[in-house]
Design a protein that fits this description.
elongated, alpha+beta, four-stranded mixed β-sheet, five-stranded antiparallel β-sheet, single chain, 266 residues
Length: 266
């Protein structure tokens, strides 16, 4: 009886050691894959945007129409334990701006330091292992559409850019949390910058500005109303499908239909 018990323990320990060894080898493989790709990505980044896109294996399909000739591609390349995410802004099929983001895998401190060392050749990383995004042509994503002069206002830049999320809504997801772009918008919106935001390349920002206008008509002068109504009419003449979120559902609606519904806020 005792002999069988000891055999059982030895078999269990042997299986545990084998599983642990397998897990360790897999983790080592993931680290090799991740760090090798970062080296490859850095070389591509230093050569050209075209080489970078080739390394990231960016496909032509799956772009979101932002209107006025602009499109946004959002995706990423998964590796071992990490993913390089990208957002690419196109104007008439030409890349005018992009954002690269990633994060250091939640592993041991030793491995985090290794990832930081490798990623630091391309990204800026703080002491808490948080990786800062890389931007190319960021001014192209934040400058307004044709029809209004650019403002030198850093507070508006983030919400002007399509990289801040192109989904129109307020609360979204199973937990019904306030959307980040809505939070950003609420922090900066006022009657003085509403018209400017109507010229954003980000369709969600344009619609939030329309919503603010119709819900706060008494805050606008007659001259502001005339100018803003002209701009809204222009948006209506450019029908496009805008991504929306209501509750847990992310869908799409025509801009003209959304604007018509927003007028009910009067």
């Amino acid at each position: 009886m005792k002999k069988a018990f000891y055999i059982s323990i030895l078999l269990t320990l042997g299986f545990w050691n084998f599983s642990f060894s397998q897990k360790t080898e897999v983790e080592k493989y993931y680290v090799r894959v991740d760090t090798a790709f970062v080296t490859e990505l850095k070389k591509a980044y230093e050569i050209s945007t075209a080489e970078l896109m080739k390394t990231l294996e960016v496909k032509n399909e799956g772009r979101e129409n932002l209107g006025f000739g602009y499109q946004l591609k959002q995706s990423g390349k998964g590796l071992g334990s990490m993913t390089i995410n990208y957002q690419i802004l196109y104007f008439k099929n030409e890349i005018v701006s992009y954002e690269l983001t990633t994060r250091i895998p939640n592993k041991s401190k030793k491995l985090k330091k290794l990832y930081k060392e490798k990623l630091s050749t391309l990204f800026k990383i703080n002491d808490d292992f948080k990786v800062e995004p890389i931007y190319f042509g960021i001014d192209n994503s934040t400058e307004p559409l044709t029809g209004i002069e650019k403002w030198n206002n850093d507070n508006l830049n983030e919400i002007m850019s399509p990289f801040s999320s192109i989904i129109f809504g307020t609360y979204c997801g199973e937990s019904m949390t306030l959307m980040n772009n809505r939070k950003l918008f609420d922090q900066i919106i006022e009657s003085g910058n509403c018209e400017y935001l109507l010229y954003s390349k980000n369709p969600a920002t344009r619609l939030m500005a329309v919503e603010f206008y119709y819900c706060n008509l008494n805050e606008f002068s007659d001259s502001q109303k005339k100018s803003i109504e002209t701009r809204i009419a222009e948006l209506n003449r450019k029908p496009m499908l805008t991504r929306t979120c209501s509750g847990c559902i992310i869908g799409g609606e025509l801009t003209e239909k959304i604007i018509t519904e927003l007028k009910n806020c009067r």
